[in-house]
Specification:
By secondary structure, this protein is mostly beta strands. The chain has a single domain, classed as 10 Kd Chaperonin, Protein Cpn10, Chain O, CATH 2.30.33. The protein has 1 helix and 9 strands; from the N terminus they run αβββββββββ. It has a 7-stranded mixed beta sheet with strand order 1-7-8-2-5-6-9, with no helix packed on it. Strands 3-4 form a two-stranded antiparallel ribbon. It is globular. The protein starts with 7 loop residues before the first helix and ends in a 6-residue tail after the last strand.
Length: 124
Amino acid sequence: MYPDQNLKTREKSKSIEANMNLRPIHDKVIVTELDRGEKTTKSGIILLDDSTVEAGERGIRPRWARVHAVGPEQVDVTANQWILLEHGRWSLGQDLTDSSGETVRIWLADHESILAVADEKPEE
């Protein structure tokens, strides 16, 4: 199974009241802004969306995500950097809502599957 598949149980994403200052433990990495959906490269190549059950294995590719927070033992990345993750190496997304009403979707990334790190969002 692939992360973010549109299964009925996953479509009902719960919004949780939470402090947006999450502090992961150990060397865990929490990310936001996970790159999803169909993409077209500058040269016109279409990378198909693989975030649905119907997609099967087509379009499987690594994804960029922004680091929201890291655990105290994480030495490879810091908050607000962009990381490239191997396909499927993140948890299901979870919506968190702070006291001001702002909602952010977060994922727990597999820190052993980080392929690259960038200080700014990479261009498509």
